[in-house]
């Protein structure tokens, strides 16, 4: 595999100034994305899905939540049926 870096200010050129073929002849182009945080939010009532992004260096604050697994739900259903 051969890697050649594209110029940061002009993606039609390599870092050394030589022209880059961006039509796929020279292979794929990979772009490094900077670090960021993201969170998906499902709005069940409006049936919409949102993605929220943050570029903060540290994880954004969040509220504590209780995570339920299928096993937790099945166990609580079993306990509920026994108590009837």
Describe this structure in words.
Helix content is 17%, strand content 17%. The chain starts with 36 loop residues before the first strand and ends with a helix. The protein has 1 helix and 2 strands; from the N terminus they run E-E-H. It is of the alpha+beta class and 84 residues long. The model has no long low-confidence stretch (mean pLDDT 83).
Per-chain topology:
Blueprint: E1 37-43, E2 48-54, H1 70-83
Antiparallel strand pairs: 1-2
The proportion of residues forming helix, as a percent range, comes to 10-25%
Mean pLDDT: 83
Report the major sheet: 2 strands, antiparallel
What is the strand arrangement across the widest sheet? 1-2
**Share in β-strands:** 15-25%
The secondary structure category is alpha+beta
SSE series: EEH
**Per the principal axes of the C-alpha atoms, what is the gross shape?**
elongated
Distance between the termini: 66 Å
Number of strands: 2
Low-pLDDT stretches are none
Rg of Cα set: 24 Å
Counting H and I runs of at least 4 residues, what is the number of helices?
Answer: 1
């Amino acid at each position: 595999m051969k890697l050649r870096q594209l110029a940061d200010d002009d993606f039609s050129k390599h870092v050394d100034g030589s022209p880059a073929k961006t039509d796929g002849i020279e292979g794929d182009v990979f772009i490094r994305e900077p670090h960021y945080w993201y969170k998906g939010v499902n709005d069940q009532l409006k049936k919409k899905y949102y993605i929220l992004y943050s570029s903060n260096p540290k994880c954004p604050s969040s509220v504590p939540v209780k995570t339920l697994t299928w096993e937790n739900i099945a166990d609580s259903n079993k306990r509920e049926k026994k108590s009837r």
